[in-house]
């Protein structure tokens, strides 16, 4: 470049200043001043020329280093260059990167590129207060124009240093630069490629303008850190056909040989970077490979695998070396590579890869590796996290990646025959290691044994992976489980009364968890099918009794049956073992006990029959536990075991929770099972004991609620609705009678405060609530009667127990659930009665609580009191919302004829009672907040006219909360507020456009006492909402709702809107942005033939317009 | 059938839950496993409100026990107890009565109006400054105040105030 002499002398001066500063720092002469000089140089605007001059001319390495650093900082600081500047500048960086100016500057150059790439990848960029639009453009141009060039520079840099590094016996300066180059290549491959995919994933390429950072929801990774790399066809040459990978592999191979030399070792940065890059290449996927049936990708993977195999094979030698002190990192990277390969291939391809270069398949290697790791785990004390833990998890993830069937990808979880043996080997070692761990931990006096559910779900991921492996070879693994299980049961019997059974109990506990996972899937409320792998695998024997799953299930059922014998129970069946049994029976029953399609009866109950019948045909053998086979007797056994846990394990809350919430719920989930349940003596005894006997009152009260629900649900198994209703009456009648009698006692006030009475009342309310939650059309009548019988008693109890929060809350919750179940079925007269009752309840509650202050010395008791209040209010809001639903869904017969209750008035009245109790402070409780806004938005949407009738205090409270809600974190809350605003504004606009008052004075604004004019509500909300949509962060999902609220607000306040628009335009300094904004505002209200009406069509047009508008302007209005 | 023992055990006790009219006593026994958060419990002979319940086992295959954290309803002190869950705990009889506040005397007593028109003059004001000022301030503002007196195991204390509108 030509420079004028003037410039030149200035550049020389700068260079001298920097050189001087560098040397004074080196010599510790006046370092503060020198640092200041360098700092101001680094921060000076556009120092590129000076830097370039220094780099090219200075003899002093330190000065060159400072200059390179200054370029880096400045370039990141001042992203805008003219095109010419950019070219010169990048040419400079390229030269630096390729080592023209020596190794130091080369390192800086590569480092600079690394920072540049990271700056442009939005997820790691720093905040720069530049328009978002600008960031996008940078990102796109980076990906399309520069990324590949940078990669090549880094690759060439690394290549050029290869010989120097490999020829030297110790670390040379090039090592550092070479490491940086490899790191840069890795970082570029980590780029979130959006634009180079031939539009295949167009949605991913579209930028979200509504929030600052792009979420990670696009990540394809299944469960581990393994991300798929898809840079697109443009990278084929660079990465695949250039021989680049073979260079990398041989470079690392050569490096390995030098690990004994000084300066190189397994974990030196150069080796680590090289391995990471190799692992990253294993995740390459997509159209970077030609479409040749995957042949090219297979070759690519094979090439990598042949390099990687030395890291992990032979497994025994590798693990021995690690145990005797070698670093585990190479072995773990090998596991990571296998995981990556498993993620991008099918099991068959995966297995085949290795076969072409060795005598065994990849699955066999995976299995051998896993076995080796498990052996180490078994021997070592599994207390702390060691390499074998990490390796086990990585390898388990690899198996999962291979075995989890992915519907869309057409990948099947089935393994080739050889692979099945490999899986079976692994599985048997898994079980062995788990048993070892169980027996080791059995006697540890771990006082804080986790609650069963917590511990199962913590292990769940691991157990699910085990199950996948076990299911890959059921003909081997299930008989193995059966033998191991039976062995331990036999051991228990032999040692009964002689030896301490704890170790065996813990082993059985562990086995039940594993077996439960292998045999059945978690239903999550649905009826889970027999796992596909179990259905489809060919099992040699045709007879049901010999099917391995049947044999194993029968073994466990027989063992569980022994818990019914008192002596056996006392000596063997500990609470913890029973927990595992209850959990297992729940899981197993959902899948195998009386599977649904056997009877034609429930063809209408929503199951996908075709699909199920098909899958069931393939596993006829498993129908042995069906309704017409052993099903009934097994069901009876399960009920007996459940009852045993409730009766003979007093105070075992966790066990009883499993029985109530899992086991019994699983039994009544399907109607065909209920039909058999209600016919069983054992079920009848349980129901009778529950209704009439004292014993089950000692269950935890929430468990009693669940039990009541279960028993009422089972009434659906009665032959007709009358019988079902009678079943419920018989079950609950005694309980309601007790409450009615108690509430009519003369000395109630005294008696009611006794702890034993409080306990009885609480338990009964919980039971009533459980029954109410089980309301179905078939039992609705009986449950309505149950509730209406106690309505009056409820009000009496609310008075008597007004200071007893726990009881008040139960009273409210019962009413909430009862109204929820009943309201849509009630006839006019019944509705009036229920609504009247609810209003009295609300008034009574309010009169007890308005103006009440709790006094206590204890701050924690005061905060408990606040939480209690929150819970009450939430219940009251739910009650109002439930009443509202009557106006939406109504199944009563006389809804049109008779003059019904005016629900809207009632609910508004209720809201006025509740609102004074709700403070903004209480709205910090997220659930209360949602409930409140969902009720509010519903009311404003359905009955906007009622707002005009609210008194001033309630009105301003409602608006205050709306404003609060618009700025809430919770998208749903904002959405509900927007809906409420839309309703209010559109109501007002429609009313006023036909000459009515609408919201009248409230919309117009008013003068306050000091004569200050305050804006009307729509003006206020128009300002707020405009600011929100233009400048704040929010979810893209809210745009439509915001449009729906904005349109009527604009129509209500057109003059203000014009003014606000003009102000916005005036504020723009940049003339290009100014005119873009003006045009965008113009088309926001004019394009798509937008009119001044509030009909569906117009709302839709405005949604479109607003969307375009925001995409156009938010890019430069918002600064990040 | 294999369930006969269960049935026998259940029909052993054919109570029909009565017993609501026994005389008031200071405490009642209740199985530890049935005591919930927000309920009451006696710990170290003090009536407490339960603010935390957790269960654990004595050894992996042993029986459940409950760990209670309670707060003394009068002193506000935190107390803890561990009880096997099938054993009984004492639950205190906690009574709360509303009175209208008539007067606050110089010597630290309150004068209360009972439901049947008598006065109750034996209750001391709390010594804690904060509580004291909440009661005194409200009274001084001329509000009509109802106070709630909590009593249990022979002690009593004001536990809540309620403003029922300006004094007529």
TrEMBL record, chain A:
Residues 915-985 form the Exportin-1 C-terminal domain. One of its GO terms (biological process) is protein export from nucleus. InterPro entries: ARM-like, ARM-type_fold, XPO1_C_dom, XPO4/7-like. It comes from Dillenia turbinata. PANTHER family: EXPORTIN 4,7-RELATED, EXPORTIN-4. Keywords: Cytoplasm, Nucleus, Protein transport, Transport. Belongs to the exportin family. This is Exportin-4. GO terms for molecular function: nuclear export signal receptor activity. It comes from the Eukaryota. It is found in: Cytoplasm; Nucleus. Pfam families: CRM1_C (PF08767). One of its GO terms (cellular component) is nuclear pore. Transmembrane segments: none annotated.
TrEMBL record, chain B:
It comes from the Eukaryota. Residues 93-162 form the Translation initiation factor 5A C-terminal domain. Residues 1-25 are annotated as: Disordered. PROSITE patterns: IF5A_HYPUSINE. The keyword Protein biosynthesis applies. The keyword Secreted does not apply. Translation factor that promotes translation elongation and termination, particularly upon ribosome stalling at specific amino acid sequence contexts. Binds between the exit (E) and peptidyl (P) site of the ribosome and promotes rescue of stalled ribosome: specifically required for efficient translation of polyproline-containing peptides as well as other motifs that stall the ribosome. Acts as ribosome quality control (RQC) cofactor by joining the RQC complex to facilitate peptidyl transfer during CAT tailing step. Keywords: Elongation factor, Hypusine, Initiation factor, Protein biosynthesis. PANTHER family: TRANSLATION INITIATION FACTOR 5A FAMILY MEMBER. It comes from Dillenia turbinata. GO terms for biological process: positive regulation of translational elongation; positive regulation of translational termination. Belongs to the eIF-5A family. One of its GO terms (molecular function) is translation initiation factor activity. This is Eukaryotic translation initiation factor 5A. eIF-5A seems to be the only eukaryotic protein to have a hypusine residue which is a post-translational modification of a lysine by the addition of a butylamino group.
């Amino acid at each position: 470049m030509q420079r004028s002499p003037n410039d030149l002398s200035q550049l020389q001066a700068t260079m001298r200043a920097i050189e001087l500063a560098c040397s004074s720092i080196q010599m510790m002469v006046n370092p503060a001043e020198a640092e200041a000089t360098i700092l101001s140089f680094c921060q000076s605007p556009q120092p590129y020329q000076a830097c370039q001059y220094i780099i090219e001319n200075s003899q002093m390495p330190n000065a060159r280093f400072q200059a390179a650093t200054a370029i880096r900082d400045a370039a990141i600081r001042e992203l805008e260059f003219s095109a010419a500047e950019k070219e010169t500048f990048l040419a400079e960086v390229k030269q630096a990167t390729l080592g023209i100016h020596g190794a130091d500057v080369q390192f800086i150059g590569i480092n600079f590129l690394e920072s540049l790439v990271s700056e442009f990848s939005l997820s790691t960029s720093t905040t720069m207060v530049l328009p978002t639009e600008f960031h996008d453009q940078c990102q796109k141009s980076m990906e399309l124009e520069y990324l590949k060039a940078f990669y090549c520079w880094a690759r060439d840099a690394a290549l050029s240093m290869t010989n120097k590094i490999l020829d030297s016996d110790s670390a040379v300066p090039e090592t550092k630069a070479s490491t940086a180059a490899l790191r840069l290549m890795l970082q570029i491959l980590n780029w979130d490629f959006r634009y180079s995919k031939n539009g295949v994933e167009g949605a991913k390429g579209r930028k979200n303008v509504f929030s600052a950072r792009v979420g990670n929801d696009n990540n394809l990774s299944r469960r581990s850190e393994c991300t798929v790399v898809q840079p697109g066809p443009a990278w084929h040459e660079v990465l695949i056909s250039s021989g680049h990978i073979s260079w990398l592999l041989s470079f690392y191979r050569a490096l390995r040989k030098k690990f004994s030399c000084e300066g190189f070792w397994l974990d030196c940065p150069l080796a680590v970077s090289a391995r990471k890059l190799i692992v990253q290449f294993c995740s390459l996927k997509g159209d970077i490979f030609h479409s040749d049936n995957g042949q090219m990708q297979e070759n690519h993977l094979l090439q990598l695998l042949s390099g990687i195999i030395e890291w992990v094979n032979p497994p025994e030698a590798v693990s021995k070396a690690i145990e005797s002190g070698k670093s585990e990192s190479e072995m773990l990277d090998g596991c990571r590579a296998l995981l990556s390969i498993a993620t991008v291939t099918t099991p068959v391809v995966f297995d085949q890869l290795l076969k072409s270069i060795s005598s065994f398949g990849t699955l066999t290697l995976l299995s051998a590796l896993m076995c080796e790791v498990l052996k180490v785990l078994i021997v070592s004390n599994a207390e702390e996290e060691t390499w074998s833990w990490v390796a086990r998890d990585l390898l388990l993830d690899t198996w999962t990646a291979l075995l989890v069937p992915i519907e869309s990808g057409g990948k099947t979880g089935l393994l080739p025959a050889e692979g099945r043996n490999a899986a079976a080997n692994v599985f048997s070692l898994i079980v062995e290691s788990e048993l070892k761990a169980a027996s080791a931990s059995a006697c540890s006096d771990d006082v804080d044994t986790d609650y069963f559910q917590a511990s199962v779900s913590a292990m769940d991921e691991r157990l699910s992976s085990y199950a996948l492996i076990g299911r890959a070879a059921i003909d081997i693994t299930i008989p193995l489980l059966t033998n191991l299980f039976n062995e331990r049961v036999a051991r228990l019997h032999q040692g009964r009364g002689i030896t301490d059974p704890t170790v065996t109990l813990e082993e059985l506990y562990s086995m039940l968890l594993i077996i439960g996972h292998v045999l059945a899937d978690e239903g999550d409320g649905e009826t889970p099918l027999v796992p596909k792998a179990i259905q489809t695998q060919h099992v040699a024997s045709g007879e049901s009794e010999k099917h391995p799953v049947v044999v194993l299930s029968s073994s466990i059922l027989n063992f569980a049956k022994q818990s019914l014998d008192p002596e056996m129970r006392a000596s063997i069946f500990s609470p913890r073992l029973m927990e595992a049994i209850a959990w297992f029976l729940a899981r197993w029953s959902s899948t195998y006990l009386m599977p649904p399609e056997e009877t034609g009866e429930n063809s209408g109950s929503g199951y996908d029959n075709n699909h199920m019948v098909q899958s069931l045909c393939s596993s006829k053998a498993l129908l042995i536990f069906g309704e017409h086979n052993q099903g009934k007797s097994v069901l009876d056994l399960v009920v007996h075991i459940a009852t045993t846990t409730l009766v003979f394990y007093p105070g075992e809350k966790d066990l009883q929770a499993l029985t109530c919430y899992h086991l019994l719920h699983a039994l009544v989930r399907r109607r065909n099972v209920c039909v058999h349940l209600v016919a069983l003596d054992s079920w009848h005894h349980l129901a009778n004991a529950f209704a009439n006997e004292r014993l089950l009152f000692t269950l935890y009260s929430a468990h009693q609620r669940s039990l009541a629900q279960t028993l009422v649900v089972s009434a659906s198994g009665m032959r007709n609705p009358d019988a079902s209703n009678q079943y419920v009456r018989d079950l609950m009648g005694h309980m309601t009678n007790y409450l009615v009698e108690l509430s009519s006692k003369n000395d109630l006030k005294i008696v009611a405060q006794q702890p034993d009475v409080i306990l009885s009342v609480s338990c009964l309310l919980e039971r009533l609530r459980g029954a109410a939650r089980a309301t179905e059309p078939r039992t609705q009548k009986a449950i309505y009667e149950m509730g209406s019988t106690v309505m009056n008693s409820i009000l009496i109890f609310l008075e008597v127990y007004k200071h007893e929060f726990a009881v008040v809350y139960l009273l409210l919750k019962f009413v909430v659930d009862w109204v929820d179940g009943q309201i849509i079925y009630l006839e006019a007269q019944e509705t009036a009665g229920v609504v009247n009752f609810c209003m009295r309840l609300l008034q009574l509650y309010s009169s007890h609580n308005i103006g009440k202050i709790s006094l206590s010395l204890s701050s924690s008791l005061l905060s408990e009191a606040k939480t209690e209040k929150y819970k009450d209010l939430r219940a009251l809001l739910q009650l109002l919302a439930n009443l509202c639903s009557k106006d939406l869904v109504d199944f009563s017969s006389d809804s049109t004829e008779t003059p019904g209750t005016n629900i809207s008035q009632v609910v508004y009245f209720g809201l006025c009672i509740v609102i004074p109790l709700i403070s903004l402070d209480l709205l910090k409780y997220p659930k209360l907040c949602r409930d409140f806004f969902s009720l509010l938005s519903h009311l404003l949407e359905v009955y906007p006219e009622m707002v005009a009738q609210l008194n001033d205090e309630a009105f301003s409270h409602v608006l205050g909360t709306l404003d609060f809600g618009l700025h809430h974190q919770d998208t749903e809350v904002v959405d509900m507020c927007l809906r409420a605003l839309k309703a209010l504004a559109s109501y007002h606009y429609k009313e006023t456009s036909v000459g009515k008052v609408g919201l009248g004075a409230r919309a117009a604004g008013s003068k306050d006492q000091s004569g200050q004019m305050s804006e009307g509500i729509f003006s206020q909300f128009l300002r707020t909402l405009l600011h929100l949509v233009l400048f704040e962060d929010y979810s893209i999902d809210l745009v439509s709702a915001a449009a729906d609220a904005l349109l009527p607000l604009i129509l209500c306040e057109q003059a203000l809107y014009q003014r606000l628009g003009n102000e916005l335009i005036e504020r723009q300094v940049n003339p290009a942005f100014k005119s873009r904004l003006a045009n965008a505002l113009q088309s926001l209200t004019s394009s798509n033939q937008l009119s001044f009406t509030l009909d569906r069509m117009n709302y839709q047009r405005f949604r479109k317009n607003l969307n375009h508008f925001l995409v156009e302007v938010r890019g430069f209005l918002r600064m990040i | 059938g294999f369930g006969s023992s269960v049935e026998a055990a259940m029909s052993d006790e054919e109570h029909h839950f009565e017993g609501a009219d026994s005389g008031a006593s200071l405490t009642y026994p209740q199985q530890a496993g049935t005591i919930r958060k927000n309920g009451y419990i006696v710990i170290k002979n003090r009536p407490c409100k339960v603010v935390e319940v957790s269960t654990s086992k004595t050894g992996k295959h042993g029986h459940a026990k409950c760990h209670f954290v309670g707060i003394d309803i009068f002193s506000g002190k935190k107390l803890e107890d561990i009880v096997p869950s099938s054993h009984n705990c004492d639950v205190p009889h906690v009574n709360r009565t509303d009175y209208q506040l008539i007067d606050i005397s110089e010597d630290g007593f309150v004068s209360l109006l009972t439901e049947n028109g008598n006065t109750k003059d034996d209750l001391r004001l709390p010594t804690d400054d904060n509580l004291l000022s909440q009661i005194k301030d409200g009274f001084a503002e001329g509000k009509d105040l109802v106070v709630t007196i909590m009593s249990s195991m022979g002690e009593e204390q004001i536990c809540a105030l309620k403003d029922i509108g300006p004094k007529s």
